[in-house]
Design a protein that fits this description.
Layout: E1 2-5, H1 8-11, E2 16-20, E3 26-29, E4 36-38, E5 42-43, E6 64-65, E7 69-71, E8 120-123, E9 126-128, E10 147-149, H2 160-163, E11 171-173, E12 197-199, E13 218-220, H3 231-234, E14 242-244, E15 268-270, E16 289-291, E17 313-315, E18 339-341, E19 360-362, E20 384-386, E21 410-412, E22 431-433, E23 455-457, E24 481-483, E25 502-504, H4 515-518, E26 526-528, E27 552-554, E28 573-575, E29 597-599
Parallel strand pairs: 3-29, 9-10, 10-11, 11-12, 12-13, 13-14, 14-15, 15-16, 16-17, 17-18, 18-19, 19-20, 20-21, 21-22, 22-23, 23-24, 24-25, 25-26, 26-27, 27-28, 28-29
Antiparallel strand pairs: 1-2, 2-3, 4-7, 5-6, 8-9
InterPro entries: Leu-rich_rpt, Leu-rich_rpt_4, Leu-rich_rpt_typical-subtyp, LRR_dom_sf, SLRP
Protein name: Podocan like 1
GO cellular component, one term: extracellular matrix
Length: 601
């Protein structure tokens, strides 16, 4: 057997070596204290949002980098098995404009008379001058240009005389410059009768352009310093479809009542991360997506949403909304609404008057302490209900609160004050998150009717082995993932269903394993037993014999003194770090020929 050192250029120290014998190479790694940095790919500073049929998708026309994501303390060999915190489903859309309508490949500049120095001009109609550190608007631009890109430069002003000559211009991208309002004349765009797409995000504007041509379809003024919008900036624009004003300093005073009058075709409005104190009135009636999160909204005026029957997505999270700031008719006219986010507000109860077609309802991070019988009876199409981080108790959940929710498949109740499993769980729920509560026991009937449940998370409660009924999980014949980590269990629960694929029991006080507790789990693929009190003498011979499909076994942070014998032949990942193993016998791994990685320290 040969030791092949990979050297310090892999994990910093010569901490990984490969044992090469007659069988496939086996990688042994010491789990260190290093983090893994995953760099984001280049893309726009605002994530791209595709707007169906609006324009073709470009090749990264806005090229600013995104922040990397650091996963601290996770060794690369363990990265793929990190458990994710249960989160909400992805939003239907994001706070971002679509990219400009340009598909320009890495073509060399053409030597035509309408191409400025250092710019790329694939055709007479397209001029690409992005990222050239320009301080002055380029001259010698062809009057036939239709798509002009000047993003990622140092421009502070736009010369009216030169811009006014570009009468064929359809797309103007000035994203990520230093343009100030004083450098943008009121009449700057007045003569551009063909202009459809204007991108002025990430500049220094304090007021919006006073006049935009009636031809515009998309206007992006996000991430400026805007405090004021004029009536003719967006008003009287029959062709306008999308407006992006997020990350500014707009108040209700700076957004006049008639700001969007006559612009009845606007379908996307992004006003998030401003300083609005109430939901603006007289918004375009054709809105499909309305983003108002991260403001200071404390109330929704009566009738403010009464004409928006096309609205599908409404984002109101991270505001100051209370139940007193709305009335039962606030949402009742939104017949097309599918996605509503009211998380991180000041709600103390479920708001009344929800329309029936909502599919995703976020109510997390409020102060809701009860679910009365009829509080959710209208939203019969609900599929995701997110109530985490509230003040719910089991006594406050009416047994019929979920009775009408026959389509509900995801229910998040984590970080509440539940002392037991709430009664009347929805019959068709498939993912149930009730971790980080105060649950002390699981009774015979707690999950008797949730026969479709595939994912159940009960981690970080106050469960003891003696308080889990031996038949508590008997009806969960489709259960695939069960998380009981972070409790006070001393034994594996009995009666676990054979459908189980992932069983998480780390951070308990389990001190013994026996074959009969695992005999039924023939489909198990992952078994997590880290941070328990297991010793070699407490693992009964034959414990693993029925786990013929097990791929991952985590026994780290226990009290093992040597490698457990008779490990399943199917095993691919074995975690044994932070035990008391001092000697590895020659036959230790002979029963696991398919092993890919063993972590020992």
């Amino acid at each position: 057997m040969v030791r092949e050192s990979f050297g310090s250029d892999v994990f910093g120290d010569p901490a990984e070596f490969r044992l090469v014998g007659d069988k496939a190479p086996l990688t042994l790694a010491w789990a260190g204290e290093r983090g893994v940095t995953q760099e984001g790919s280049c893309g726009p500073s605002h994530s791209e949002l595709e707007e169906g049929g609006e324009h073709p998708n470009p090749r990264s026309w806005i090229g600013t980098g995104q922040k990397g994501e650091i996963l601290g303390g996770i060794h690369p060999i363990l990265w793929g098995t990190v458990s994710h915190w249960p989160g909400p489903p992805p939003a239907l859309s994001r706070d971002a404009p679509p990219s400009p309508p340009l598909d320009v490949g890495p073509l060399p500049p053409k030597n035509n008379p309408g191409c400025p120095a250092n710019c790329t001009c694939p055709s007479e109609e397209t001029v690409e001058c992005g990222g050239l550190d320009l301080h002055v608007f380029p001259s010698n631009i062809s009057r036939a240009v239709q798509h002009l890109s000047l993003q990622n430069n140092q421009l502070r002003e736009l010369p009216y005389d030169e811009l006014a000559q570009l009468t064929s211009l359809k797309t103007l991208n000035l994203h990520n410059n230093h343009i100030i309002s004083a450098g943008l004349p009121d009449e700057a765009f007045e003569s551009l009768d063909s202009l459809q797409y204007i991108y002025l995000a990430n500049n220094k504007l304090t007021v919006a352009p006073q006049i935009l041509p009636s031809t515009v379809r998309i206007v992006d003024l996000a991430a400026n310093l805007l405090t004021e919008v004029y009536p003719l900036t967006f008003g009287q624009k029959a062709n306008l479809r999308s407006v992006y004003l997020h990350n500014n300093q707009l108040t209700n005073t700076g957004l006049p009542y008639d700001a969007f009058s006559g612009s009845n075709a606007v379908s996307t409005m992004i006003l998030s991360s401003n300083q609005l104190s109430y939901l603006p009135q007289n918004l375009p009636p054709a809105l499909v997506r309305l983003h108002l999160q991260n403001n200071r909204i404390a109330r929704i005026p009566r009738g403010a949403l009464s004409s928006h029957w096309k609205l599908r997505e409404l984002y109101l999270q991270n505001n100051n909304l209370s139940n007193q700031g709305m009335d039962p008719s606030t949402f009742s006219k939104l017949k097309s609404l599918e996605y509503l986010d009211l998380s991180n507000n000041n709600l103390t109860k479920i708001p009344a008057g929800f329309p029936p077609n909502i599919m995703i309802l976020h109510l997390g991070k409020n102060r809701i302490d009860s679910l009365p019988r009829d509080s959710l009876s209208r939203v019969r199409g609900l599929q995701y209900l997110l109530l985490q981080n509230n003040r719910l108790t089991a006594a406050g959940v009416h047994p019929d609160a979920f009775l009408k929710l026959r389509n509900l498949h995801t229910l998040h109740l984590y970080n509440n004050r539940l002392e037991r499993v709430p009664p009347g769980l929805p019959r068709r729920v498939r993912s149930l998150m009730i971790l980080h509560n105060q649950i002390t026991h699981i009774g015979l009937q707690d999950f008797a009717n949730t026969y479709l449940l595939a994912e159940l998370n009960l981690s970080y409660n106050r469960l003891y082995s003696a308080k889990i009924h031996r038949l508590a999980f008997r009806k969960l014949r489709r259960l695939e993932t069960l998380d009981l980590s972070g409790n006070q269990l001393t034994l594996l629960p009995t009666g676990l269903p054979p459908s189980l694929q992932v069983l998480k029991l780390h951070k308990n006080q389990i001190n013994s394993l026996s074959p009969e507790l695992l005999a039924n789990l023939t489909g198990l693929k992952e078994l997590h037993l880290a941070h328990n009190r297991l010793r070699i003498g407490s693992i009964t011979p034959g414990t693993w014999q029925e786990l013929q499909g097990l791929k991952l076994l985590d026994l780290s942070n226990n009290e093992l003194s040597y490698i457990p014998p008779d490990l399943p032949e199917s095993l691919e990942y074995l975690y044994l770090q932070h035990n008391r193993i001092a000697v590895i016998g020659a036959e230790a791994f002979h029963t696991i020929p398919d092993i890919r990685a063993i972590v020992l320290r």
